[in-house]
Amino acid sequence: MSTDFWPDRVKVLTKQLGIDYPIIQAPMAGGPSTPELAAAVSNSRALGSLGVGYLSPEQIESEIRKVKELTNKPFSINLFVPDRDVASQPSDKVLNRLKEFSEELGIDSPEIPSPPKYNFEDQLAVVIENNVPIFSFTFGIPDKVLIKGLLERGVLVIGTATCVEEGVSLEQAGCSAIVAQGSEAGGHRGTFGSTKGTPMVGGLALVPQLTDKVKIPIIASGGIMDGRGIAASIALGASAVQIGTAFLSCEEAGVPKPWLDTLLSSKDVSTVLTRAFSGKYARGIKNRFIDEMSFLEQEVANYPVQNSLTRQIRNTAKEKQNSDFMSLWAGQGSAMSRKCTAQELVSLLVSETYDALKSMTSNL
Q: Fewer Cβ close by (within 10 Å): the C or N end of the chain?
């Protein structure tokens, strides 16, 4: 399909990214964003992404190599910016409840984890060494020296903002573009550790406010599941969209069957925000773990301690196909999920966007 119908600002960003369609597959860390998914999206003329924030430098390098074996198109790598001032401990009530869940699953009780032997800079070094063309990040802002170094190497740098204040800070730090993450989005909120509270601004309000305050391109994210959402985002001033939940039900995604089944049977009211799994607010489909931990949510340790404490519970639940204890991340549009290949989804999204944009202008 011709790309002539995209507005000029969209064409500018897609040219910078080296893609034809202003669609970015969200970098869903923890399993969903596989090399196969990222490559399939990139091969479909959109932008595939890998979320590698949980991986060691060696694992990151392996994942990058797999993507490069499957595509010669641009792709993005995403990392978590560490917040070094949020260390905390869970309450005894939290530890006791996690112990009860562990016993039910037949595993040892969780213990306070030791810090990893690698840091953000070690992870980023692998991204640079492997000449990844696009780097995105969330949870904060890397040191300006690191961003400057990436830009000097020709890498496009994309940050995540959940409010206008964060977006302005990202522009001042030198970012190439900003993902405007609306409160509808699935998975972890990209809120900075230094931001007061956890902004819950919806995409419909966030995107136009950000486009009014910054000069760099805005990438809309949150609740976008079809071409109507893409067209609406473009009408609000976005230059592209980042989509996560819609790609979860693609064949190439690393989503276990219980998660996929729950996703495909979800409703518009199925998702909630929770700190129970990781210590950082994230949106997912409500299950038993979230429900029974909701009364202790303010007593869990901050990320990444709580995330480490629940890791074995989540992993064992995955092995046992038990959705009660899995983190079933999904956005508010989950009920619109479609089971297909990544290529089919990208094609559908582009066609639907064209139809939606055409319908808005046909009677003018």
A: C
Distance, CA of 17 to CA of 10 (rounded, Å): 11
Confirm if 190 and 183 have CB atoms less than 8 A apart: no
CA–CA dist 138, 157 (Å, integer): 11
Per-residue pLDDT tens over the stretch 184-193: 999 999 999 8
Whether the Cβ atoms of residue 239 and residue 218 lie closer than 8 Å to each other = yes
- Looking at the chain, how many residues does it have? 364
* pLDDT tens readout for residues 74-111: 999 999 999 876 668 899 999 999 999 999 999 999 98
pLDDT, position 69: 98
CA separation for the pair 328, 286 (Å, rounded): 8
Q: Which residues of the chain have pLDDT under 50?
A: none
3-class SS at 150? helix
CATH architecture of 8-82+119-255+336-361: Alpha-Beta Barrel (3.20)
- Sheet with 75-80: list strands edge to edge: 23-25, 240-243, 218-221, 177-181, 156-161, 134-138, 75-80, 48-51
Strand ranges of the sheet holding 282-285, from the earlier edge strand across to the other edge: 187-188, 282-285, 271-274
Q: Going by C-beta distance under 8 Å and a sequence separation of 6 or more, which residues neighbour residue 357?
A: 5, 231, 234
> Using CA atoms in the order 33, 38, 40, 46, what is the torsion angle rounded to 10 degrees?
120
The ranges assigned to domains in the chain are: 8-82+119-255+336-361, 86-116+271-329
Check residue 333 and give its pLDDT.
98
Q: How far is CA 97 from CA 101, 297, 319, 324, in A?
A: 6, 12, 21, 14
